[in-house]
Amino acid sequence: MDWNFIIFSVVKIAIVIGAVQFFAAYAVLVERKVSAWIQDRVGPNRVAPPFVKYIPVVGPVLTRMGVFQPLADGLKFLLKEDFTPAGVRKAYFWLAPMISIIPSMIVVAVVPFGSYIGHQKMVIADLNVGILYTFGIVSLGVYGIVLAGYAANSKYPFLGGIRSSAQMVSYEISMGMSVIPVFLIASSLNLSQVVNWQAQHGWMLIYAPLSFVIFLVASFAETNRTPFDLPEAETELVGGYHTEYSSMKFALFFLAEYSNMVAASGMMVTLFFGGWTLPFWGLDQSAASFAGDKALLIGIAQILVFILKMVVLMVVFIWVRWMWPRFRYDQLMDLGWRRFVPLALVNILITAIVLWATS
Amino acid sequence: MAITVNRRPLTFWEKLYLPAIVGGFKVTARHLVRSLFGGKTVTMEYPEQKWTVPENYRGAPYLVKDQDGKTKCVSCQLCEFVCPPKAIRITPPGPTGQIADRPNAEKMPEEFEINFLRCIYCGLCQEVCPEEAIFLLKDYSITGQSRDELIYNKEKLLALGGVHPGIQKWKHKLEEAKDQENFPVKV
Asked: What is the value of pTM for the model shown?
């Protein structure tokens, strides 16, 4: 048994899960703030622990930006009554939030969020089949939603569950096919090696722009965000699959949704935006190729670069939500099956032909 | 008859919806920048900023005093009878009670209570009052820590209502009587 490996893995897992939760919590705040600004409102600007008002300048600014809002939200979720409606199927009702949150938490395991710190590779599991793992796990996410819709024994969650199963299964296909050209070009399924390839040749976005467009749209659909938020469409389905949930169970769904967003952003950064690399200041080389303090510095800087890119993409996710209306159900299916699937197939074909011709 | 609207078919560029998407980005980005950096939000941050109450606003009903600071209410109990949610309760002085503190009146209420948990701010009490003693003023944020706190008694209502020198019923009656002399009324 390699204790070193186990200890460092546990530490990395703890940090990554913590970071994902943190980003999910603050994505909610950013969501509320951005939506407020887009709609000419102010957004959350009151919550603050009592001591904050004694801090000059910084305190009021932090309060105004709603920095403490996620704490209050979390506390509210914990303290609310965990109500179980009379008609639900209890076992599934309890199981659904768990099934929903677990895939969104473990999908980040294969995403390389940095190169090296010390001798530790900054990825939890450096799998050679990284992308297959990701798709395997992501497709599990739909079960939580379907189960929640079924277990609630109520029409709105049921409709939400049906919609989500149709939507997520449809877009899973175009999503899976959209990334095949990426791996054809990088000639590896290992995400770390995809990042390394991009460090040498430039961002994948330049080589496979169509893949990126399809992947972006499909990840909007996979994370149930507007314009693909049919499973939870508040205006039609009173909240969709989580209508009957309250308290921490609802919070788990909420957290799962935002963690999915974090994971999707991380995935896109890895696949199309060069992961933890930047083409200047030596950030495009693995930190292992430096020595001493500089290696540590570069390692940390690369993690920050990754986070920065991810945050930018998450803001795009949020921005889009407050801009576009929801798709009609038939339009959604039409777009998924009759536009993106053929487009992804053509994309694979063209990429393969070009690679074959130039090799 | 059905009207046929000739709609121009969408061009290929428009069918891609890209111009619409870019347009959407522009609009939302403009609003975001405007409210984030320009501070041009429509939100009124309530406890700090308050709105200007309109002239004809129906706020909380209070008892008002006349120009001499005397109680106008004569304890006729019309407002108590008309009040739809039965929010008003008047205790009349009775035959042996205290007499009114102003001329032109025989009595004034011994106690006058308005329960603001029940009041619906309809303004019927103001409409029905023959003495112009109760008015819906502009207070709108009536809050309290307990139910008892929200039952306002005569003293409190009179203090909140204050003196309204402009409201002088008997003077108005006199003017109206004079106006009757030169009938028809010229406006």
From this structure: 0.78
